[in-house]
Design a protein that fits this description.
Strand content: 5-15%
CATH architecture: 3-Layer(aba) Sandwich
Order of helices and strands: HHEHHEHEEHEHEHHEH
Helix content: 40-55%
Largest sheet: 7 strands, parallel
Radius of gyration: 20 Å
Structural class: alpha/beta
CATH class: Alpha Beta
Number of domains: 1
Distance between the termini: 42 Å
Number of helices: 10
Shape: globular
Number of strands: 7
CATH topology: Rossmann fold
Amino acid sequence: MSDDNGWPVKAYKNIDFLKRREARTMRILSEYMEPETRFEDQNISDTIVFFGSARATAAKDARAKLKAAKAHGDAHQIETAERSLVMSRYYEDARKLAKRLTKWSKGLEKGRRRFVVCTGGGPGLMEAANRGASEANGLNIGLNISIPHEQVENPYVSRELEFEFNYFFMRKFWFTYLAKALIAFPGGFGTMDEFFELMTLVQTRKLGKTMPIVLYGTDYWDKIIDFDALVRFGTISPEDLDLFKRLNTVDEAFDFITGELNKKALKRPGGSL
């Protein structure tokens, strides 16, 4: 195999080889080492992670969709648009919260960047958080993943810190390693997978740090997951419910997260597991 100049292709430039099963270890290591170097280059110390649905839209777009649906007169389209408008509240809240947290964290900066907003980099509520951080003129992170649908990079992720992962477990590593706080907004299987994996690490004390964890939007989450039933059936302990907070407003979430970070994380920069 030769390059354009007729020279033999070096092994580390041989794409066909790098895609083979035998090179899997190198691909995994690349998804550890390459992000690590970029975080170092941008002086990223730690993050605040936002999880949430890829399907939520901004309130302005949701209102326009509903108006168009009513003009068309299709009952199914109207129902879908009305549901989208309800969920758009969480888009706007994620945007506002990320903006406030970014302004607050920028006031702390002394060399290293602290508590940088980090999302899955896709549309919906991920976009909302990246958008809010961008509106506060803050660097923000998008840990994207290659999947067949939904996951298109949103335009608000800082270009220096946009990533495209092949392996879910490496993406989850970077969500967890740098995180000093987590806010889980309404979402589907992906959001619940990410939230429950982190909760399992916290509950089993496999995570060598404590962090404020917020489940945002009780109108949604209380209908989706009956945590109190888990206690009644004895599958979790009552004290496990103290591992996270169920909150409903931007003010509540901002006050809780910044209060906890000031007490527990401000003097402990950097990533850890």
